[in-house]
Queue: 3 jobs
Job 1
Amino acid sequence: MQIKQFFISALTIIVFLGLVSCHKDNSKINILVAAPFTGEAASYGKVLKEGIEIALSELEADPVKKRLNVIYRDSKLSLKEIVNILHQEISIHPISVVMPVSTSESLILAPICNKNKIILLPPLADGDQLTNAGPYVYRISPTSSFQGKELARAVIGGGHARAAVLSLNDAWGTGLSEAFKDSFQKKGGEVVAMEICNPGQTDLRLQLEKIRMANPSALVILIHPAETIPALKQIRELVIKAQLYGGDTFSNKAIYNEAADLAQGVVFALPSQPDNEAFRKFSTLYKSKYGTSADINAAAARDAIMLIAEAVRKGAKNGESIKMEFEKLNAGFEGATGLIKWDKNGDVVSKNYGIFRIEGKGYKPLIIK
Amino acid sequence: MINQLILNGIIAGSVYILVAVGFAVIYRTVRFFHFAHGVVFTAGAYFTYLFKAWLSWPVIIAAPVSIGLCAMLGVIIETSVYRPLRHKGSSSLILLIASLGIYIVLQNIISMAFGDDTKTIRSGIVKEGINILGARITPVQITIIIASLLLLVSCFLFLKYTKKGQAIRAVAIDPELARVSGIESDRVILSTFALGSAMAGVAGILVALNVDMTPTMGMNALLMGVVAVIIGGIESIPGIALGALFLGMAQHLGAWNVGSQWQEAIAFAILLIFLLFRPQGFLGKKVKTATV
């Protein structure tokens, strides 16, 4: 009899503990940051995390911070991996917001997010393909078409009518290269070569040889830092004399650490840095925490968290209510990246790109006539 | 243009030779897919980076020390993992999984220690390549071609004409018979790991000097090396060299027409063709089996 009672009691305790552990804490707003923290694109995951950590330190005294639960997962920039991560996290706790890095990752997550009413808020993704990705998709960075137009303006303004493009074989690379090509041709320029390389590819001599044969006066480089560093070296070795232009990836610190001498004079487009209080505060905090000048991509990650915090402060409890608050916030949210105002597709329409030139270990704004 | 493509093909082929011969020397004696060969290749590059960038050693000193460390790494892998498993009677599949595990663990250690960004070990300013008949070649690329040629010939002569080389071949052909003849197979296998790993180290350093390095660089190099081994025929060192050069040429000449992003696809298409129609490779011999 005693043994029977013991087993019943033990079973009751086990069932109770099981139920308690399975209970989902709905008071927290779970923000899944699925970014590449390892692999060739790890520098983006690092930047994203830096921006988020700054945002959380800004919210230190704010009661809202206690309600935000940031979950970091390493996506390795793999589409398969990021889908698995989202499914796993959804099965563990209610996810309100997902923050991936790339356009490709965002595109593959968008249907899952729309179905589960989860906000998809990629701070850095700027590919035009995301424009029609669904009602739960919002961005922080302006789209590639803005960047492509600005780059085309810079190349034409630099006096180059023949340009070649070296882009990455992914949604961001192809989207941006097409946006540049369209704008450049409309302005009377001719794209004489369009070469693509795979992510992580460091031997780019074949692509560069094709570009050299086309004899462009400008070369637009739209690849990640992992490929950019060897590409800059190979451009010099193959004696490609074209003026170098690039996308927003040229702001990445990895390039300045490993190939600053080869990147001197590269002209590139980057979301404009605002002159506002939020950016100044962010810059001070960033410099004191990481010892270097503020990164605009980190500022984008900071703004993403601040937007969510603002929605939660106003009573949002899940993805659906965050969306409702975002619609109200759309009158204008002043972040460290500038004013954030979305169109009906969640694309940022209040920001633009600036043109910068690499000088020394940093970059300076360039005025294009 | 065609001169540059041929030159690029020879350079790629030379790198494949270094990886493929090292892999084949080990494979012939242990008969399993030594995945960790890829991470030894990566380690060669990162050891040099460590000495060059962190300790400010000149490359001329950092490189030989790194090659020695790669040989040592190969020996440690063999003595601490493969040999105990072999003595327990583990199958080739178990050894393959173990080698994959070693690859992942060591690659992650490299990532943690050095970060995942592309690193460079070049010294001084990057100069324009030397012009040879309209094609550009750098001093590092000339070194790659010469090093692969020298190591290929040395390896061939070592295996063919030295006592140690003959012992390696004996263990490769029939380990049991070699043991009966008084050859200590464990010692022979250890030598092949030291030799093959040193060659992987040389390849890793030269590739890093040529196109920089990332912690994942080893896997692609290993796969291309293995394709070259299969195309050339694993039993023949000259065959492997031929396979590697053929692969390098085919990738560069083929990708010129179909697009640069298809280089890997071309390599694996060639591999499939060989596996289907000439599995013994260029200079390999068909093995006939007979039972009594």
Job 2
Amino acid sequence: MATTEEIYAKMQTSIQEYDQDAAAAAAGEAVAAGLDPVEAVENGFAAAIRELGEAFDRMEIFLPQLVMAADAMKSGVTVLEEAMEATGGTLERKGVVVLGTVEGDIHDIGKTIVGAMLQANGYEVHDLGIDVPAPRFIQAAQEMRAQIIALSALLSTTMLFQRDVVELLRNKGLEDQYFIIVGGAPVTEQWAEEIGANGYARDAVAAVKVLDSRRAEWAT
Amino acid sequence: MNFKEVAKRAETGPLMEANDFLMRRVAANVAKLQSDFDVRWDGQTLVNLDVDLADRCWAAGKQLLLSTGVYSMSSRRVIEFSPEEIDEALRFVPHRVPMGQGKDAVTVHHRAIEDPRPPFIFGGPFNADVHESVFVKLNEAFAQERIIDCLLFPGYLKELDGLVIRPGSGLSSRAAVLYGQWSREAVRRASRPGMPICGHAVMALNEIACTSEEWGLRQSDPRAMVLISELQVDDVTMSRTAYYKDYGCPIYMAFTPLVGGYGGGPDGTAIIATASFIAAIMMGGEIVHIGPQHIKYKQQTNNHSLFLGSLANQAVARNSHIIATTSHTTAGRPGSDQYPYEFSALALAVVPSGSNMTGPRPAEPLGFNDVSPLMARLFAEVGRAAAQLMLDQAAPIVEELYEKYRDKLTFDQAPQGQPFEELYDLDTLTPTPEHQALYEEVKEELVRLGVPLG
């Protein structure tokens, strides 16, 4: 049987090689070896994917590689989660995020990058896609037991729908239950404050930093 | 291929998810073609001087479009093209497109590499948010600059009567009507009643409400459509294209390849850009606008975008008759010297590479009225001067200009500048003495660097 270090090495390699099947197989080995799933995620997957996130920020790798690495990690983590659930436990994630591009806006790439970077940094991300109506964000956040709602808008004409999500939450009396973070080309910190969002991030790296550094405001 | 056939294929082509299209068709094929055709950036060059690389980029881009097609985000189907259909479209692509009316009519044309003819200038607010209180005056100030050939995107009316406009709403239809009326009024006030207005009123289908031969945008005015990155289209763009084509407007088709995205670096993204130039023609475009986006920067004057702009334009200029124009967005804002240094660098990179010119404008995020007609004049003057330079003469000037702003490329680092109403006297519609002095100073410096401004 492989040693713990060898299993972690396989998990890391699967991320570095963007290999979903290998990630699932390595996670399966970790389960079979009785390794602690939380430690396996941290030592096997998270370290490798954080390195890739940094390489993405330095433009040494690009979006396809980041997406593939995040998908590989998702495959592996799913195996570990299933093992935990089978024994009555749950695999703790850093936080649960509902993410999407707001209504009227069909721009996908910026939001996809944010999703991949958050996933790469240990968040559970539920990507609702593009042109997402305000009520859908709230419905999904409730269904997924999310702590964070992340709203993307590329156009100055569609960013007002970020305001609508915040306003709808307020009208439902739910504004204290979620951390709202906004971003996108025309969005500024000033706009975030104006509409009552909790946070603003200019890009994917900043989104991770904001959520990590303000964990006390959203962690339950 | 006519537009009817394109629209039909958007309903009948292969069905797939967007992520599969982007990852399996676009990203996978770019990586392979980049290797097959050896399209590589050396990490240093700002202006491409290797015409063989440009030809390889063209071949790779054409092959990419054949491999990918164009994805309809609305129907989730791929509009595919055969090699014969692409060749025929390129054979019959218009190399000149007239626009405007009467004595104000002008013609935009295809430019070759190092073409000595001046570039066509699309200049105006360029979709900056423009407040209703200054909409006519701001556009009049652009239209009175005779060096601008076509008034470009007269600005988003983000608010009316203090209310923020929701796209697709009744208020946005009213905004589109006012956009048409006020844009026409602006060019009339500038004594250019037939000046073409390149329109893009609101980001929804009710944009067409700006159309009227009597008071709004006319058949002779080009209309802008935007493809979504990468190689994607939606029903709104398809619908507007269908309407404006049959109405008879010149079709101005824009695309925005993302450096750091599915094409990788500037070299792989240049292949996507080349494919997108051809895709825009297949989708009914007659004037094709490249507006590179970047994963880290919001403007188009960074080193990656300079190289990408020069390479993709050269690929198109050498191998087709496509009428190309390049978007110029900056980190620096009007009222700062960085603003003209940035747009001058890009103009000097792309005009000798065969492009016409669109812009300038600071990148998002923007406040209201963050543009300057005087700087648009300088932009046009630099473009005309750039047409007198060979690529190897322009390249070192681009490098010197890039050094002036390379460390101030983000919104936070770049000078914030001033809006139109602080740069102009609104009664006389003339630049303030300070703004005029900035124009003179920058022009003097550009001449010192070797830009042949007369």
Job 3
Amino acid sequence: MRVPSFAPHATALVAALAWSAPVWAQTGGTTGTGGTGGLTGLTGPTLSITQVVRLAPDDLNGDNPLSVDRDTRIYWVSRNECLANQTLRFVFSTSGTSIDTLRVRADAVGQDCSSSSTSNQSTVCPLIYDDMAGTGKSSNSYYADIRAQDIVASQESATYNGPGSGTTELCDSATGQSKLEFTFLGDYNGTTNVVVAVFSQSQADTAYHTDGVGYDVDGPAAPTDVSASAGENRLLLSWTPANDDTIEGYRFYCQEVTSGVSPLMPQSLTGSTSAAASLEGGVSDAAPIGTGGLGATGGRGATGGAGGSLALTGGTGAFGTGATAGTGGTLTSALLDSGVTTIGTATDAGTSACGPTSLIAGQAPSLEFEAQYACGKITGNGANGETNKSLKNDVPYQVAVAAVDNVGNVGPLSTVQCATPLLVDSFFELYKRAGGPGGGGFCTASPGANSGRGLLVTALAILAGMLVVRRRRT
Amino acid sequence: VTRTRLGLVAAATVASVTTVGVAQAQGVDEFGTYGMGDSQESPQNFALELRFGPYTPRVDDGVPNGTPYKDVFGTSNRYLLGAELDWQILRIPKLGTLGPGFGIGITWASGDGFSQSGDRVSQESVLTLLPMYTVAVFRVDVLARDLGIPLVPYAKGGLGFVPWWSSDGGSTAYDDNKEIVARDWSYGYQFALGGMLQLDPLDPGTARNMDADTGVNSAYVFGEFYYSDIDGFGDGNEMQVGTTTWIVGIALEI
């Protein structure tokens, strides 16, 4: 907790924070309690008072969908929230005075951001929110919509350049986690950068367990020893769970072997050697590029090696094959001369033991990948599960498993396994096929067919009546 | 029955192994307490049983073509864990008690399904039974109460009703046409013949203290022959989930 540098004055700034992130489908959140000490005396131009604003303990649970590490009271921005470019809304109000503008800077807990430069490119306390126009102000109420991508990128990217510059790609490439401290700065009465509030999880504030924000974009390690076997319209999976107490579940990803591959995996891919990439415009004179490979427009086959520059003039080169897909090369003028207009990115497919696949071991799923290939999940750190029952019998599938942590981050995929769903005779199918009676639900009854049930109910009623009579006599 | 009671019963049972006292009938009847010196026995109205035993339902007996239960679940024993509460509503002097009882238990069998080629597939089928019954219970405790023989033979007879359901993998099973859900209940009759061995004489002091502290009049171990025919009284519309088996357990009269 920061210590006020000036003695408190008379007017209290009742600051309250609430989470209100429409993109997260929240309904405005609940209002937190004001911080201790109070932000007082916005009366002089030299004012510089820090207030730690706390959320009440109950604000982040109940009907609030945000997941919060209750032990440390930190809301962790997850990888998917970053990928989806979701927004974190901070709401607070003042009484007795108002501020004109609002900026928010972020850095690790303990970093003093109250006097840092206003440069958006500052590597210390980078700016993650800037509302110089006062858009978020209404009377003495304020809000700041802070993009998850800016939160992550401000700490993870050397090229971060202020609010709005965080990107999906940065969410993908980031792998870290950190607790953060948000410093809210306002302009008041001609004085700029007055510290309005500091939102932090401060170790020193153990009495109040101050809530805070952090980001965690790194999922758990992939499960090992994954195996898959056939079920009816499903695959049955087992694996060795990781000894990781942050794991809250596992997700399954399936792809029909016959459905081809789709470039939905982010970043570089790891796959086995496959056929050379097809290259739009044709491949002519072989001019291998070492072990590297560049996917051109439409080309996705190459699970090529590290990307490089294709330095051919007037022609197109053959694509190398390698065990590791490239990260995309540089589009050189020579390539442009050759008619290539787009350099393939590292979204090319790899191969599995049962053919080309979009399921790439070691790679965390993107949102698009999740939407297309997710085929089941379990909760808890279990060792087996089954996919949902939407798979086609007699069609081979590739399947992989990924662990999910308590922040919601999905870790990298396991090794890819292959299995084919098939018709399975269960006990009840065999029983009914053999002419066994019964079934149909607890409430089934038909006159005649189940007349015995009426007899049973009658008998029970008579018995109960006898008991009542006996009870009254005694 | 409180945890304390159960603990005392367990303690009494353990103590009886090493401390064998003089067999002595104790209790209370129309003429007052007996066999307990100056102490007085608390009122006795109920009997509670904790029951355990193998339970293999005769499902295949009700199937005209084939043995699906045996094929999927095999022939190994499955076990039932249950409880029964009897209300000893009527005391017949110099003979015993008569009253209604209600019991409930649970048992299940699991096994892998089959592919079309007949091979086992690790998609597991489970059949779960929840046997419940209402019976009349007649316990002949004259031996223990009047003759100092710590045995209580008994007989039970009544109606059984067994909700059952079957799963296929992680979800409820259906028939081939996905029209009939694998969930229903069957009913029928059942009876049991058994005997209880009274533990109180093994340590009368502990028994008296337990009664005074917890209201448990007597503790027993018991065994019984159990037969049920749970197929809708033969109407041909219910799964046969009755069985012939033995049940053992502990009982408390309270």
